[in-house]
Amino acid sequence: MKPKLTIVKIGGNVIDNPELLDSVLADFAKLENAKILVHGGGKLATRLGEKLGIEAKFHKGRRITDQAMLEIAVMSYAGGTNKSIVAKLQALGVNAIGLTGADGNLILSEKRAVKTVDFGFVGDVRKVDSEALRNLIQCGFVPVFAAITHDGKGKLLNTNADTIASEIAIACSDFFDTELLYCFEKPGVLANSEDGDSVISLLDAELYQRLKAENKVHSGMLPKLDNCFRALENGVSVVKVGSEKLLSDQNSGTKIQP
Amino acid sequence: MKPKLTIVKIGGNVIDNPELLDSVLADFAKLENAKILVHGGGKLATRLGEKLGIEAKFHKGRRITDQAMLEIAVMSYAGGTNKSIVAKLQALGVNAIGLTGADGNLILSEKRAVKTVDFGFVGDVRKVDSEALRNLIQCGFVPVFAAITHDGKGKLLNTNADTIASEIAIACSDFFDTELLYCFEKPGVLANSEDGDSVISLLDAELYQRLKAENKVHSGMLPKLDNCFRALENGVSVVKVGSEKLLSDQNSGTKIQP
């Protein structure tokens, strides 16, 4: 039987709230099996950019990463946020090691091809080195990933943290029984996006297709849920979406099923 | 026989010069035995601080690290500089992994006690985990350290890069035949600090004491040379000080001897 590995992704709502972050890290510390944390960026990069007079650029809600913004993302995600989380986890007795995809060539990406819009230095994941990750875990380290990867040719790339989490979970399914937990600002997938009490406890592919056809899935949820189903179709055992309570309450959030 | 391990420290003069940095990394890539790179910060932190309106504070030439400056140091050293070096080394075929002392609890420090001056969040190294470093090296990783450590209680600490390099070299002497190379802006220890051609090729403790007594050692060199002799007294086999040519030319620079 493969050993269990839990991959937890936390988003900006946790990163930007110091008390919530501390409580999430305390819950993460309590997970007894092998584990990996993936974090997004939060507002630090945007704030730093503003202070430096570098304007955040978006196309239809998606960030465009020019060279100046890439440097800010690397400094704030892989520097500020990542190392602060690592130090906090170490204080909780978790042997965290902070990483980007460039470190140990763990996540190789390709700069997104320019079609109609040039999103700049944004990477689409090509390969996760699950063997190297397994080695790190076997050495007793708990990987903590910032959402930065590289192209293997010397260029760092800003990369979607949800995708990094699902690609890690998929690749690590070679060696582990993997569980993927997406913590975000809602208590789960909602039947009615206005109503926090309308959490769908079990979402399978059929229901997802139906909800999509009825335009009942919030557009911001679509890429996240596509990542969830992709993970399930590629060897990941368990996928859940919900608030940070996913870490402490088995029955919290939405369980995604094939 | 213990396997050979080379620890290379590069300073601001290399970090701040992109062409020189590329050439140093190319030479580092050619070293065939196990290796570790330690880098200082360069001007990125100072420039970032200036842009953010945070003034660098010094006491008799030594930096005072307040909370704002610590955050800038972590972002620029552990984020910007470290990850950029890692991506460049990966492109050269070196399986670099970027680290601070907080990662994997590799370098534990203590905040420097306040005597007459409070240097702020500055760490004095207490323990390097040589076994964890050996594990990383045995997994095929090449550690690249930014000069940031932690206190194990959740606080990151700015730490002298020369000291980090010598403490790593000393600790790793348990498992390796260690060589410590300090690359800096001069071609070696100079008999006359005004004359770049006056490199002392061999400096032993006796000569060092004599030069010190005669006030012939530049004051900025004293802590570096103290680190060198401390390393030699604690198990490090070879210590050299010089320009980046140390990496490609066996006869370059100053060899320090007990």
Q: Could you explain the architecture of this structure?
A:
Chains A, B: It catalyses: N-acetyl-L-glutamate + ATP = N-acetyl-L-glutamyl 5-phosphate + ADP. Chains A, B: This is Acetylglutamate kinase. Chains A, B: It is an enzyme of class 2 (transferase). Chains A, B: The record marks 9, 224 as: Transition state stabilizer. Chains A, B: It is found in: Cytoplasm. The structure is a homodimer of 258-residue chains. In chain A, α3 (44-51) packs across α4 (67-91). The model of chain A has no long low-confidence stretch (mean pLDDT 94). The two termini of chain A are 22 Å apart. The radius of gyration of chain A is 18 Å and the shape is globular. Chain A has an eight-stranded mixed β-sheet, with helices on both faces. A two-stranded antiparallel ribbon of chain A has the order 3-4. The longest helix of chain A is centred in the first third of the chain and has 25 residues, at 67-91. Chain A is built from eight helices and 14 strands. Chain A is α/β, with parallel strands linked by helices and 258 residues long. Chain A has one domain: Carbamate kinase (3-Layer(aba) Sandwich). In chain A, 36% of the residues lie in helices and 25% in strands.
Condensed summary:
Chains A, B: It is found in: Cytoplasm. The structure is a homodimer. With about 260 residues, chain A is of the alpha/beta class.
Q: What general form of chain A does the structure show?
A: globular
What is the CATH C level class of chain A, in words? Answer: Alpha Beta
How many β strands of chain A by DSSP? 14
Number of domains as seen in the coordinates of chain A: 1
Major beta sheet summary of chain A = 8 strands, mixed
Helix content bin of chain A? 25-40%
**What is CATH's topology name of chain A?**
Carbamate kinase
Quickly count the helices of chain A. Answer: 8
CATH homologous superfamily descriptor of chain A: Acetylglutamate kinase-like
Radius of gyration of chain A: 18 Å
Specify the oligomeric state: homodimer
Q: Count interface residues per chain for the largest interface.
A: A-B, 42 and 42 residues
GO cellular component, one term (chains A, B): cytoplasm
Binding site for substrate (chains A, B): 41-42, 63, 158
Keywords (chains A, B): Amino-acid biosynthesis, Arginine biosynthesis, ATP-binding, Cytoplasm, Kinase, Nucleotide-binding, Transferase
Site (Transition state stabilizer) (chains A, B): 9, 224
